[in-house]
Structure formats: structure tokens, C-alpha cells
TrEMBL record, chain A:
GO molecular function: ATP binding; ATP hydrolysis activity
Family designation: Belongs to the ABC transporter superfamily.
UniProt-recorded name of the protein: ABC transporter ATP-binding protein
Organism expressing this protein natively: Mesobacillus zeae
UniProt xrefs under PANTHER family: ABC TRANSPORTER ATP-BINDING PROTEIN, ABC TRANSPORTER ATP-BINDING PROTEIN NATA
InterPro entries the record matches: AAA+_ATPase, ABC_transporter-like_ATP-bd, ABC_transporter-like_CS, ABC_transporter_ATP-binding, P-loop_NTPase
Domain (ABC transporter): residue spans on this chain: 8-247
Keywords: ATP-binding, Nucleotide-binding, Transport
UniProtKB/TrEMBL annotation, chain B:
InterPro entries xrefs: ABC2_TM, ABC2_TM_bact-type, ABC_2_transport, Nod_factor_ABC_transporter
Matching Pfam families: ABC2_membrane
Recorded topology in the membrane: Multi-pass membrane protein
Localisation per UniProt entry: Cell membrane; Membrane
Species of origin: Mesobacillus zeae
Keywords linked to the UniProt accession: Cell membrane, Membrane, Transmembrane, Transmembrane helix, Transport
Family statement: Belongs to the ABC-2 integral membrane protein family.
Protein name per Swiss-Prot or TrEMBL: Transport permease protein
GO molecular function list: ABC-type transporter activity
Transmembrane segments: 23-43, 63-81, 118-137, 149-171, 192-216, 236-254
Ranges for domain ABC transmembrane type-2: 23-257
First-listed, main subcellular location of the protein, grouped into a coarse class: membrane
Cellular component, GO, one term: ATP-binding cassette (ABC) transporter complex
Amino acid sequence: MIEAKGLKKTYTISKKAGFLRKEKQKVKAVDGIDLTISEGEIVGLLGLNGAGKTTTIKMLCTLLNPTAGTISVDGLDAVCDAMAVKGLVNMIAGGERMLYWRLTGAENLRYFGKLYGLHGLELEEKISSLLSQVGLSEVSDTPVELYSKGMKQRLQIARGLINDPRYLFLDEPTLGLDVPVAKQLRETVKNLAKEQQKGILLTSHYLEEVEELCDRVYIIEKGKIVLHDTPQKITETVVNEFHVSVETRTLSALEQSKLAKGLPSCKIQFLPSSDGTILEIKAPFDPTSIIIAICVEQKISIQKLELKRPRLEDAILALAKEKSA
Amino acid sequence: MRCMSILWAEAVKSHQHNFHNKLVYFSLLIWPALLFVTSYYSFKPFNLSATGPLSAYIETDQIILFLLTGYLAYIFFWSLVQSAWNMSYERQAGTLELIFLTPVSRITVMYARAAGNLFEAVWLFTLFTLLVLLTTGQADHIHWANVPIALLFLSISAIVWGGFLNIVFLFSRDAGILFTIFEEPMQFFSGVRIPVLAFPVWGKVIAFFFPLTYVLDIFRKLILDGAGLLQLIDQFLMLAGVLAILFTVSVLLLKKAEHHAKETGNMVLF
Ligand SMILES: Nc1ncnc2c1ncn2[C@@H]1O[C@H](COP(=O)(O)OP(=O)(O)OP(=O)(O)O)[C@@H](O)[C@H]1O
Ligand SMILES: [Mg+2]
């Protein structure tokens, strides 16, 4: 298990304060974060740009030293035993960097494999099994510069698995990928956790991705954790608004006012459709039973009724609204 | 064993990255050959006879040999300045950070990088040197028995030097100043074209700071004068001292560089 306690990172940057003068300024990128990642679990780290996600990941994978706080990786300290921790973790970032473009896929893996102390037959077997795992066997001898974005990203995944890490950190792994490619990548990530029991920390700006993959989510803002729960719980607690959409035959003004009266404290919109009316209802409780009761009473046949489940995205938006209010 | 594996990995990487196209032959051969030819012809108009000023320091009929050995050694050193410069590519590509994400011995990578680049950068000019020796009929003046050992010392020194430069480039993306320091000044003050002994005192003091000065002195004495290893013991001790200092400074700087990167996150800035 990875356990971070009271993690802080303050960068000192020098700001121009005149032609030759520079002023030192401190930026609190991460400001007291506690988090845990267990093996076999996918944990999400959500937050707006500059919230401190990348900084947190870099501290967890020993690329940065925390200003304060401790990180323990299976009992090893990430600062004192950094070299041992490096053998247990790996990090993958989105985008097309972090590969040698003029080397082939296999050569990239071979280079990094050697840095992890692998060699000979063991290394070659690992390379071919990883390449086939990410579906790049056919292009293993093609230079990376000729790969598509999705292929580069898959090679990154293979690179991140070359040392068979117990914990994997993914910093926006689906950045810039199109829908089917991103979906495939999510499958891979899920398998890594569920079948290979790797502990995974994932940051992403795509909320459906986090919702689909993550067992738990930390939401951070300005370097602090503001919420920590399962995606469902976060949605339920933050979004206390139910959204129902009902399709009926065309409703008269009288019927419309009956419905409106029967649903006080709800927002109702009547929208004309090609063969009837669509009702969009937003309520602080689940209004389906009341709607059905009124429709039966008024002899209005319901063609379609849909309760739209609130999504993590709504939760984040609601949180942001709360903060700015 | 592990070192050799990493050395080979670095050699393959640099082969694909730095030596992949035909243009590179310009910097491997044409450019150093031009340097050699232009300096040779700039000596020509001067008084090179036994009464001339230079004759106190070199045998003036051996000026071709003096320059060839000078430029050969210089190319060994200079090519590693270029290879260190390529470090900025790795910084931009983010691969530098990935190297530091692995538990590999950092000092091994730094020297393997230098060694992996060296051979490919110098073989062409080495052949050229050989060709000039043969075609100008100067081959008889060379003490061939000493050549392998001279090249060995040259290579080892160049690798220690190259590892040091790689580490310097870890600190800053702005290490481009090294290009300015090491191109012309290193050529001049290390005695590539003019013997260090012919310098005024201030020039000798500057020469003292370039490791190439010590290497080149030994290299020429071995190859051109046929000096025995025992005769050169003082020079060897001096060189060993210089390399030991360079190595120690490199190890300390490397520790500091990684620590600095862990504090500031500068390894990805470019
Ligand atoms: N190397 C650095 N030096 C100085 N300040 C930095 C450095 N890296 C990040 N910062 C600052 O730290 C804060 C957090 O940055 P970080 O990259 O961790 O955010 P993030 O959550 O990953 O954002 P994004 O979603 O845009 O990737 C920002 O204010 C950023 O400007
Ligand atoms: Mg980020």
C-alpha cells in the first residue's frame, strides 16, 4: 500500500521585478494531502488546471521531494529509500513526449528495460509480451515517429510496465486520444488493476473516465483535498437534484398547469416535440411517482420516461458553483 | 556487466538519434578536416625554418604531424561537448526525467552516454588522419607501437571529460555557453595548433584548466617522440590527478543535480 501523509510541496520561483531585479516567490502547489492507494485499486485524482495533481504524482514516484509530509510505499520511505521505491513504481503521462522518436518501439522498451537492470532473453521476452499486450507487435520495428498518437500512448503504457511495477501513476493518459482509442486504453487500465492487482493512481480531465474506472476519487483544489469518496457517493451527496424527462402526447394549457401545480418546488419546462410534448423536470427529490400519478389521473399516456442519473460532472460543477458563491 | 549493457544501450540510442542521416558526416569528417587544412595553410606563410620562432618548440618539418595529432585529440574531446549538448533534447522530450525515474546508477549512465557516443563520433576522422599520414609520407615518423596505448589514454580521458559535461548539462538548459567556451578557446589553449610552451604565462595558466592540454602532451610524446611509459611518469601522474579531480567533481555535481531537480522540478523545464 502507498500511504501519503501531510504531503506538501512549495516551489520557490523567481519572478521578474524589474529589468535585473528578481523576486523570490513561494508557490504552494500541494498543501497537506493525505492519500492511500492499495494494490488492485484504481484511485482518481481530480482537480482543475494547476490544482497540484502532477506535482502530487511526481512526489509519489520520487521525482520530487516533498517539502513536508511522508510517503511510504510498501513500508519504504519515498525520500530515504528512493532507489528501492523506483523499482516498485512507474509513471505514464499523456501526450506524445517521453519516448525516443527515432528509436523503434522495441528499441525504446529495450533501452528502458536495461536501465531497470533487465537483460538478455528475459528482457527480449518481456518486450515481446508487452508489445503484444498493447497491440503493437506488428510495428515493433517501426520508428516511433511514424506511430499515431494512440500507438505512442500504448507504447508509453508498455514502457510503464517494463519493470512490472506494483503501483502505476497515470497523468492524463487519454489526453488527446479519440473515443475508441481512449476506450481501449481504459480497458487496459482496468485489467491492470483487476487482473494484475496493480495499484493505480489516475488523473484525468475526462470525468466519465474517472467515473467508469475509479474505485475512489480524491478531489483536490489549490493543493488541498476537498472531497474523498467513491464516484457514486460524491455524486449523491453533492448533486441533490433529480432530472426527469417525460414524453407525452401534446398537452393542453390546462393539463400543463395541473402538472405544474402537482409538482411544487420543481422546475418544469414544456417543450414541443414532433408528435407531442416533452417535459423536463428538475426536482430536489425523485419525482417519478408523482408524475405518473398525475398522468394517470389526467389520462395522459406516457410514451417515454427517463430518470437521468446525476453524473460526477454535475457534482464537480456544483462544487465549483458552491465555492464561487 | 551491467555497465556494458547500459553502454551498449546508450550507443544504440545515440546511433539512431545523432548519427542517423548523411549530414552528420559533415560534422564527423568535413568540418574537422577543414579545421586541420586551414590551420596547416595558415602556418605556411610564416617563417618555419630552423631559425623561425616556432622551431624552438616543434620540429617544423613535422608540422603536419603536430596538427594532425592535435586535431585528432581535439575531436575526441569536442565530440563529447556535442553529445552533452544533445542532453537538451532529452530534457525537452521528457526522457531525461524517465531516466531518473529508474533506479539505474546515475554515474554509470553519464559515462556510458559519453562512451557510447565517442566511438561513432571519432572513427571517421581517425581514418582520415591515417589517410593523411600515408599519403603525405609522414607515416615513418609515427611510433606505431605506442599508438594503441595512446589512443586508450585519449579515450579514457575523453570519457571522463564527457561524463563531466553531461552532468553539467543536467543543471541547466542554458549550458550552451559551454559551446562558446570549448570550441575556439579549447582548440587554442590546449595546444592543438600551437604548443602550450610557446604561450606567454597567462596563456599557460588558462591552458592549465583544460584537461585536453595534459592528454595532448602525453599523446604527442607517445606517438611522435616514441617516449616510453616510464619516461612519462610525471605527466601520467599529472593527468591522473586531473582526471581524479574531474571525476570527484562530477560525482558531487551529479548528487547535487538530482537533489536540485527533486526540489525544483527543473528536469522538465525547457
Ligand atoms: N517546476 C515548477 N516550478 C514552479 N512551479 C510549478 C512547477 N510545476 C508546477 N508548478 C506550479 O504548481 C501548481 C500546481 O501544478 P501542477 O502541475 O501540479 O497542476 P496540475 O493539477 O497537474 O494541473 P494540470 O491539470 O494543468 O496538469 C501550479 O500553480 C503550477 O504553476
Ligand atoms: Mg498536470
